[in-house]
From TrEMBL:
This is ADP-ribose pyrophosphatase YjhB, NUDIX family. CDD domains: NUDIX_NadM_like. InterPro entries: NUDIX_hydrolase-like_dom_sf, NUDIX_hydrolase_dom, WH-like_DNA-bd_sf, WH_DNA-bd_sf, WHD_NrtR. SUPFAM superfamilies: Nudix, Winged helix' DNA-binding domain. Residues 35-168 form the Nudix hydrolase domain.
Length: 260
């Protein structure tokens, strides 16, 4: 409403007259606070390649901190919502849309970025590595790196990754978000390996299978995994409707794993 009134008034009035009017009618047009504080976004992108849980990191070929490793980030544009900015950054780097993306935390320590006061709003994403745009990744000098081989990152990006991993472990135990890392068709042992990678612990095969099948989250495709050594694994796909329910309902997906 305010924007519409302001728009109409500025159409017909000179800036000076608008100021006089806005003062009379108490229409605020800007804040007088002088500080320049930038808002950036950083994205922690998790992917799973069938073996390991990985992070998409960039080897910086630009300043600041050229030559070092960092998360993918960027500055918030004036006409952009936070979520849209995070999606833009994720799309630029991976070519992916419609991925699991969740705001993690805001990092705002005064000296976190030595160049200028910058507040970073951090998101984490779970992607299926197979769907990525390899060219986009190459263009940005980005690499998938296993969590165990993670290099030191610039600024407070190491702490961001640490927080994201904690959140992922917490969330994956309560909701079925581990499926976000899977390809379209997968076997139960493949799914188990994702959970083992997230929690860095081995899970009992029978218990895992029983638990997963009892959720009704899997739909059998009638196909077998021809890439496995035994070629015996049943291929399943995710029951999307049930999955949505598991995302919104408060359920303990793997209650025992939160304690890990
Ligand atoms: O866009 P780059 O140069 O990576 O980073 C500049 C700032 O924006 C954020 O992403 C970083 O955390 C840093 O504060």
């Amino acid at each position: 409403m305010f924007i519409a009134v302001k728009g109409l008034l500025t159409l017909f009035l000179q800036e000076r007259q608008y100021h006089v009017l806005s003062t009379c009618y108490n229409l605020m047009i800007h804040y007088t606070h002088p500080n320049r504080i930038l808002v950036a976004l950083d994205c922690i992108i998790f992917g799973y390649d069938g073996e390991e849980l990985k992070l998409l990191l960039i080897k910086r070929n630009f300043d600041p901190e050229q030559g070092k490793w960092s998360l993918m980030g960027g500055f918030l544009k004036e006409e952009e919502d936070l979520e849209a900015a995070a999606q833009r950054i994720l799309y630029d780097l991976t070519g992916l849309t419609n991925t699991y993306l969740e705001q993690l935390q805001t990092f705002g320590a005064v000296n976190r970025d030595p160049v200028e006061r910058t507040i970073s709003v951090v998101y984490y994403a779970l992607v299926n590595i197979q769907d990525q745009d390899v060219n986009a990744i190459r263009t940005h000098n980005a690499y998938w790196i296993g969590l165990n081989e993670k290099p030191a990152l610039i600024f407070d990006h190491n702490a961001m990754v640490e927080q994201a991993l904690n959140r992922l472990r917490y969330k994956a135990a309560l909701h079925a978000i581990g499926f976000e890392l899977m390809p379209e068709k997968f076997t139960i042992p493949q799914l188990q390996r994702v959970y083992e990678a997230i929690y860095t612990k081995q899970l009992d095969r029978r218990n895992f299978s029983r638990k997963i099948l009892s959720t009704d989250l899997l739909i059998g495709t009638g196909e077998k995994d021809t890439t496995s050594v035994t070629k015996k694994g049943q291929l399943y796909r995710l029951n999307a409707e049930k999955y949505q329910q598991y995302l919104t309902d408060y359920v303990s997906f793997f209650p025992e794993l939160t304690l890990a």
